Amino acid sequence: MAPPSRRCLLLMGALGVFAFDRFTQGQKNSTLIFTKENTIRNCSCSAEIQDCDYSLANLMCSCKTVLPFAIERTSYNGHLTIWFTDTTALGRLLNFTLVRDLKLSLCSSNTLPTEYLAICGLERLRINSEAKHPSPEQSLLIHSGGDKDSNSKEKPVSLHKDWQTCMYVSFLDMALFNRDSSLKSYSIENIASIANDFPDFSYFKTFPMSSNKSYVVTVIY
User: Fold this and answer.
1) Where is this region: Disordered (predicted)?
2) Would you say residue 19 has pLDDT above 50?
3) Which region holds residue 188: left if phi is over 0, alpha if psi is between -120 and 50, else beta?
């Protein structure tokens, strides 16, 4: 059998490059954010990285360092993973942020305080506390976003605009990472005023909330 000609080899190579390019375009990157030694790294990853493997994340993902005081509130329509060691940095990243698909991984054995984070539009939550408890990853489906385009890309949106159009608000009890128990939640519908109906969450009194709509509030613990 005669070997393939030079022109044939060039054509096969071009087709291979085209196929690889189409394949990589079809891969939807996910966002990974982690905090370590007072720095925040924001990464775009084409594959899932083993939890808390900072070296692998820096090697396999496209990452950039973000200064804590330069954090901007954005919306995440795609999958977001956050590796954290304390609630202070996590609160800066998540409080009053629209996130649909969220995974939180505790990367230390620290005991976390009973603090609540307020997250808008959360549909699915996964948690991993293996650094503190030898337990498997847990997953919780909060609600299904049937009106969301599954092919939509992550797009930063105004923080105030997020909350003015947000109907689903989740309160996440960070102390759940201290317990070796199942992830639980309950939801309350037709909440007219979060600030009045949930007085313990005083920060809502200083945050603009629409007064002509009702909310579905989910408490995750």
Assistant:
1) 136-155
2) no
3) beta
Q: Residue 135 is part of which domain span?
A: 28-220
Instruction: Determine contact, residues 63/87, Cβ cutoff 8 Å.
Output: no
Answer yes or no: are the C-beta atoms of 97 and 118 closer than 8 Å.
no
Position 194 in a domain: yes
Give the 3-state secondary structure of residue 105: strand
Which pTM value belongs to this model? 0.77
Alpha carbon distance 84, 96 (integer Å)? 18
Q: Token digits for 178?
A: 């201290």
Residue 78 lies in a domain: yes
What burial letters (b/e) apply to 48-80, b meaning 16+ CB within 10 Å?
ebebbeeeebeebbebeebeeeeeebbbbbbbb
The model's pLDDT over 105-136, given as tens digits with 9 standing for 90+, comes to 999 998 999 889 999 999 999 999 988 888 88
Look at the chain and report how many structural domains it folds into: 1
